[in-house]
Amino acid sequence: MADISHVTVIGSGTMGSQIGMVAALSGFRTTVVDLSEDALAAAEKQLRSRMERDVEKGRRTQGDVDAAFDRLDFTTDQAAAVAETDIVIEAAVENIEIKRSILAELDAQAPEGAILATNSSNIVSSRLADATNRPEKVCNMHFFNPVLVMKACEIVGHEGTSEETLAAVDTLARAMGRDVIRVRREIPGFVANRLLNALRTEALKLYEEGYASFEDIDTAARSALRHPMGPFELMDLVGIDVAYLIRKAEYEQTGDESSLPAAAMERMYNTGNYGKKTGKGWYEYDDQGRKGRPNPDF
Ligand code: 3HC
């Protein structure tokens, strides 16, 4: 397989936009695709303000940032974006039917040799590969939020993924400055999210059964365990919608009731409180995304 030089990311949400930024900063020609021009414009604005801040703080040079934006395109034209791509990283919504239909489209549009990777942590690639005619080139490449800060990347093939594909994705991830975790066999949630979920499940249980407030549980994680943020703060950062859909996707795969979202998470999801991105989740957030008081409804 030729070296990867062009990366396409499908989805300009929190994950997709930052995956694209990191690829461009790492020297790859990169295209971020979304259905909505507005979503792309919002993503570009966010990234520009993040990069401005990094330059102000001396974390990057203006030259590196300008060069990265020169390599980074935003478009709604998926077919044109992938016509000459080497890899597509799908970072759309956590819904298997949507992911299968995107992969089938990409299979028809991208060059024969292109790898089709998904950023999903819960929908394993064996459930997507047969939507394409290139199952050996399909795998999971799972990043963490915020991608600009969190260096980890889990790489997971299904039984039919070729070693050549996994090696190429591994090389790309390392070139993007990632610490690679190779997951040897598929399991929903892979490694990091399974560790995180164990903590989150216990946190939700303690809260729902009235042992402590969610703020105090967050304080315990931060102040007793030195986690950078508590499990409820982290749900707000990742998105309650994402956390909820991950639980649903896991339940579809395991059929195990313990995989279902906790009642409090369901209530939060059903009321449209998705966390930082909607201004309200477990906590309230201002326009700048700064955390305010705990959500008085919970
Ligand atoms: N995007 C990009 N960069 C960000 C950011 C964001 N959303 N939030 C913070 N940063 C960067 C900024 O450079 C910021 O510095 P600045 O404000 O001076 O520019 C720097 O991080 C420090 O941020 P803060 O001072 O606001 O706060 P912290 O020191 O607490 O750091 C954090 C923020 C990096 C998010 C840290 O709290 C943390 O590591 N939290 C845990 C995150 C985590 O566990 N992520 C994994 C989630 S699981 C997942 O993603 C899997 C998926 O499948 C759901």
TrEMBL record:
Region described as Disordered: 278-298
InterPro entries: 3-OHacyl-CoA_DH, 3-OHacyl-CoA_DH_NAD-bd, 3HC_DH_C, 6-PGluconate_DH-like_C_sf, 6PGD_dom2, NAD(P)-bd_dom_sf
Residues of the site described as Important for catalytic activity: H142
GO biological process: fatty acid metabolic process
Domain 3-hydroxyacyl-CoA dehydrogenase C-terminal: 189-285
Annotated binding of NAD(+), by residue: G11, S12, G13, T14, M15, G16, D34, E94, K99, S121, N145, K277
Protein name: 3-hydroxyacyl-CoA dehydrogenase
